[in-house]
Specification:
The protein contains 5 helices and 9 strands. By secondary structure, the protein is of the alpha/beta class.
Length: 153
């Protein structure tokens, strides 16, 4: 299991089944957290089609019960979450998949700079709240993203 495939909403887990995360890993997560629903979202096929390595390469939490998803693969993920969960989430979609990889922590949204994703900038600003733009173009050269560089306690 790769951490980049695990989306914790505060209420449940969604785990991307990818080349790096298999059903055994997803089952292990479910066993480790028996009080939470764990739902697998198979993005192997659509992820490879759009060059998405992990679930969180195309979605992340951008607020309480607020999921941010990007690109065509993001639309697929939104529909998968809606059909699998009885929870009520707010969804925001941005044109760029990588622009949806954010970190929401302590009431702040850490996200990539407007200049890096100009098509997604206005949508990201409309989310509101406290936002911190982080330049991530060098990180992206090695398939890195904001969630890859974050350890939250």
């Amino acid at each position: 299991m790769d951490g980049g495939d695990v989306l914790y909403t505060g209420l449940e887990f969604f785990v991307g089944k990818t080349e790096r995360t298999n059903l055994a890993g997803i089952s292990a997560l479910a066993a480790a957290f028996p009080n939470f629903k764990v739902t697998a979202i198979d993005i192997t096929e659509i992820g490879s089609k759009f060059g998405i390595l992990h679930l969180k390469s195309a979605c992340s939490m951008c607020g309480d019960s607020h999921v941010l998803a990007g690109g065509e693969v993001g639309l697929f993920i939104i529909e998968a979450i809606k059909s699998a969960s009885p929870q009520v989430y707010r969804f925001t979609h941005v044109p760029d998949a990588s622009a949806s990889n954010c970190v929401f922590v302590n009431g702040h949204l850490l996200r990539r700079c407007d200049s890096e994703f100009p098509q997604s900038a206005s949508v990201l600003k409309a989310i509101g709240g406290k936002q911190i733009e982080v330049k991530g173009s060098e990180l992206a050269k090695v398939d890195g993203a904001l969630t890859c560089c974050s350890v939250l306690f």
